[in-house]
Amino acid sequence: MNEFESVVYEVEGRAGLSFRMEKPRSWRVLEIPEEEAQFDNPEYMLALQVTMAPYGAVVHSVAARPAYGDGAVSQWMGWLCEKQGIAVEAVERVQVGDSPAMACMGVQDTEAGRMRMRVVFLEDGRRLFTVTSMAPEEIWGSVAPVFARMVDSFRLVHVHGGTAALEPGEEAKAETDEMAPTQARDVALAEDAGSLDPEHPMNARLRDNGVGLVPRVLSVNLEERYAVVGAGAVEAVFHVPLGWHVVDDGRRTLIFDAGGRIQINLDLRGIGGDGVHGLLEQIEREHEAQQPGIEHVHFHAVGFECLSFRGMVAGEEVLEQTFLVRQAEREGMALTARVTAKEEDMGMAMNVAEVVLLSWNAGNA
């Protein structure tokens, strides 16, 4: 029986290509040689991850490239499969989280023999991802359920939304910037800054209950749909997408949606001689003590050291929680962002956190 673990993959210098997935603990992640991307070659795909079973040529891989200038995802799939010598036998529309995608089954003759494979083609924000499962044809049936779980668990950390039609004749969606970071307008929940009004009913109730006050709003950009706020607890100025609430009690700054599905807690924490690494180890120990065996993974994102927990039990809810930590400007302190949401909301939560943290101490307020 395969025991699975949840992992997050980050590509150095290309945070927008990061993704999470499950893999069998016994499967080995292969080291990918460094290479210069050759995106001017239309057949080129940048390898992001390759995982191999401990038995035979059983391989799962993820790759990406900028999406092509025209055509539908199914056409790109057919062209790339032909170029790679894959004889396509079946094509279907699938879902990758909330994102529609195309997938195909096929066979390929290689030096190791005839290989059967399933490839998922996902376009998101003008980025084309391929998620490939491959094994010798004679043992495909025995490993197909493992591959299915790995593919079903695949999620992009930074979701921008598809822009290309899946099949010819369908209308393409509005184009977004290629491999660009999340913009405030992508995750805004409103057209105005009403959620940051101190007299908003929710804000007034939190103030009256001693939870905190709305921080000072320095400016509002209605076109880009964000407000610039100055938060005393974290001694910083940053952007908040419109429609999100913010309260500050002097110890921490909390960003959240009206429905309470997502919370981003910002605070400054003291760090000792072990620095940020020591703080993350402390957080890991605390969670392990509260819930022994909880799944967790370390990774990097938007200039922060990150620690993510999956399957965290809080009362009757099962949540995900990610800590993003980096050295603060004040000596001996670390800026910590704790992002909490259910699995289906974590993509949105991390995208909001990206907007906030990339605008930290925004000089163009």
Describe what you observe in this structure:
Strands 3-4-5-9-8-7-6 form a seven-stranded antiparallel sheet, with helices on both faces. Strands 14-15-16-20-19-18-17 form a seven-stranded antiparallel sheet, with helices on both faces. The protein has six helices and 20 strands. It has 365 residues and is an alpha+beta fold. Strand 11 (216-221) and strand 12 (226-231) form a beta hairpin. It folds into two domains: 4-156, Mog1/PsbP, alpha/beta/alpha sandwich (Protein Transport Mog1p, Chain A); 184-358, Protein Transport Mog1p, Chain A (3-Layer(aba) Sandwich). The longest helix is centred in the C-terminal third of the chain and has 16 residues, at 275-290. It is globular. The chain has helices at 73-83, 140-152, 184-187, 201-208, 275-290, 346-358; strands at 4-9, 19-24, 28-29, 46-52, 59-66, 87-96, 99-110, 113-124, 127-136, 155-156, 216-221, 226-231, 236-241, 245-248, 252-256, 262-270, 295-301, 304-314, 317-327, 333-341.
Please describe the topology of this protein.
Elements (H helix, E strand, L loop, with lengths): L3 E6 L9 E6 L3 E2 L16 E7 L6 E8 L6 H11 L3 E10 L2 E12 L2 E12 L2 E10 L3 H13 L2 E2 L27 H4 L13 H8 L7 E6 L4 E6 L4 E6 L3 E4 L3 E5 L5 E9 L4 H16 L4 E7 L2 E11 L2 E11 L5 E9 L4 H13 L7
Antiparallel strand pairs: 1-2, 2-10, 3-4, 4-5, 5-9, 6-7, 7-8, 8-9, 11-12, 12-13, 14-15, 15-16, 16-20, 17-18, 18-19, 19-20
